[in-house]
Write a structure and sequence with these properties.
Layout (H helix, E strand, L loop, with lengths): L5 E2 L20 H18 L5 H9 E4 L8 E6 L3 E6 L1 H18 L5 H21 L10 H7 L7 H4 L4 H27 L10 H21 L8 H12 L2 H6 L5 H19 L1 H6 L1 H10 L2
Parallel strand pairs: 1-2, 2-4
Antiparallel strand pairs: 3-4
Helix pairs in contact: 1-3, 1-7, 3-4, 3-7, 3-9, 4-9, 7-8, 8-11, 9-11, 11-13
Amino acid sequence: MRSYRIAGSLILAWFVSAPAFSTDVDLEFYSQRINRVTRDLVDAIRPTLDPRAQEVLDDIEFLVPLSWETNADARRVFATRRIVEFNAGFLAVTDWLALAMIADWAGHNGCLKEYTTYLAELSDHNSRRLNRGRDLKQVYDFYGYAAETRGMCEGALQDTLDDSRAQELRDEMLDAVIATVLLHEIGHHILNHVGGMESNFIQKRMREVSADRWAFNTAVNANYELRNAVPLFLFIAATGGGTLEDEIRSSHPSGLHRIRELLVQTRALLDEKDPIGAHVLDASIDDLNRALR
């Protein structure tokens, strides 16, 4: 039986990233889910990798801190330990966006935009408070927001989120988000991106794009579905990666650009394996191309 080195809240992240949250949500649920998907994902992709990549994968230690820092990263410690870290708070926030998206689909038109704006504004506000050493303002998860505020999301809990189809959609999106984040960070290790000292912006951007491409290619080869990870990219776009200016400043492509790249890459890889499934993506790609002009 293969073993997996998966830790809970054993270490703190090495840097603080925006946004910062103050909430009563229990992160253990999200930690357990990341651990489960990690085991399943490693089992699924390992047989599709070459021997050298398998060796690197087997060396990775997966850490899931119970932290509200909304980031994941790949790094090496003392030039020997390979680490992939995925903070549970990162998944929690993308889960809230998934719930808002489901409510929007179910008839609460405008709920996703309203809640995304709320999260982005409070995230920015709390990040500034954190930098000044001040207490953070409470941030509503989607359940609290729908129950306590009046607007497009009002009543969403009562009439859209309890049926089995809504739960199925939520589960699909959660697992796709976890897999997308993990594959991207694993890709940095496989592609020898970890541990280098270069600071060239273009090189950093190229590494992020190549890690995304490795992730998409590996997912398709392992029959792993990443197309449901849209809440992850909405979160990136909403919190500082959705404009051309942010795209230029950041070493990561923006949220909307990464959605398009995910769909374009997936379509190309599916062309021979599943031509019908590939063709279904055309309308979504066209919509994104128009939005990004």
